[in-house]
Amino acid sequence: MKRLSPIMLAGTGSDVGKSLIATGLCRIFKQDGRNPAPFKAQNMALNSYVTPDGLEIGRAQAVQAEAAGLPCIVEMNPILLKPSGEHTSQVVLNGKPSGNRDAYSYFRKEGKEELRAIAHQAFDRLAGSFNPIVMEGAGSISELNLRDGDIVNMSMARYAHAKVILVSDIDRGGVFASVYGSIMLQTPADRKCIKGIIINKFRGDLRLFDDGRKIMEDICGVPVLGVVPMASHIHIDEEDSVALGKKGFYASKDRINVAVVLLKHISNFTDFNILERHPHVNLFYTAYPEDLDDADIIILPGSKNTLADLLDLRKRGVAKTILEAREKGKTVIGICGGYQMMGKEVCDLDGIEGDLKYLPGLGLLPIETVMSGHKTTKQVKFRFMEDERTCEGYEIHMGRTETSRPFIWREDGTEEGCMVDERCFGSYIHGILDNAAVIDFILKPFLNKRDTDYFDPSAYRQRQYDLLADWLREYVDIPRIYKIMTTND
Prior knowledge:
- By secondary structure, the chain is an alpha/beta fold.
- The chain has two domains: about 5-235 and about 465-485, Rossmann fold (3-Layer(aba) Sandwich); about 245-455, Rossmann fold (3-Layer(aba) Sandwich).
- It is built from 16 helices and 27 strands.
- Strands 19, 20, 21, 22, 23, 24 and 27 form a seven-stranded mixed beta sheet that branches.
- Strand 11 (about 195-200), helix 8 and strand 12 form a beta-alpha-beta unit.
- The mean pLDDT is about 90.
């Protein structure tokens, strides 16, 4: 089978659909008998994941690896930025935290050679074992002020000798200007790397864009490889919190209402995607106390800054409403940072998260948390309560929690989590709600067992990847993409 050049999905902006299309191409190449792997040199996201060997990468590349039929490895995303404040991010290099950096110092061109070398070395290791490499850019490729320090967009494409496909979101409007401007603002050498255009998120009759397609090709000198309709029926984990704007924010009268508390520093909200798709569940996000009154189940999610978010919950009256909901018999669940908040206290004497040293927790669980500089990152298999089914998840946290009343038993025999009763519990395990055993348990008070037996989260995810591949095959010229990837130019 002929070796294919790497392909990069670059964007006219953020949230244009690069990750989704990269995921679909990973699935297509796998279906066609190839051995693809995803790669993104630098990711900025609070949705992260843990590789089997305990290293942290962006969630999007873990999803793309799953679509490609692979366990994820750190080479797929060697540099990860996890925002922890307005201008500061934790920098994760090769899967391990290397400290915090402010945005100004990080994005300056000075000192970028070390980061560039890390990205190039990771790509080389990956390309030595897999083909093709499906690369993803970040944000817009036409941010001229950041060009000299770029390590993820066109400079990475040049290094990898990748064929670049430019993705644009037509739903935003201004698609001609964004595509033409993105191409024409490149250097002549980078412009030659762009081999095709994909127009994403189209609404309405595709025939209405027939003339537009020709006009775009004429003015840009680059073929339009596909016009992809809005794929709202396909559910793939999102890269970061920009996708929260498309989530539900209202309760329903005829389904089980699950409210996820919208924290300012929310992380890993992909924890709720499977539960959100359950046919009997209406899952919504809210930052307002009054909305929690309509919830049957309240979930406190992960946070990149637990103490700051806990203080904010108190200031806005959300903490008081959660306590009142618990008194009314509603279910309250905490995951990772949310689990820490549910305890008696959270201490950060070493200033790991910032200036706040101590706050009392919500007092719903008999646990205490101390923040530490050591970051726990590991995949886990576990048994939930008395259910015999093996569950899977992953841990990413920088706190130590002394607990009693565990309800989770890891495969290595250790205990985890804290449960007061079936309507009040918390755990460090991300992905806990991706398991049928856990979903069955939390919905049991609201549904008959027969209503939940058929819902298989793992099969559901695999079906979404196949649906996405079918969608792209229908609306994108995949044979032409293969031709582009086999042409030497």
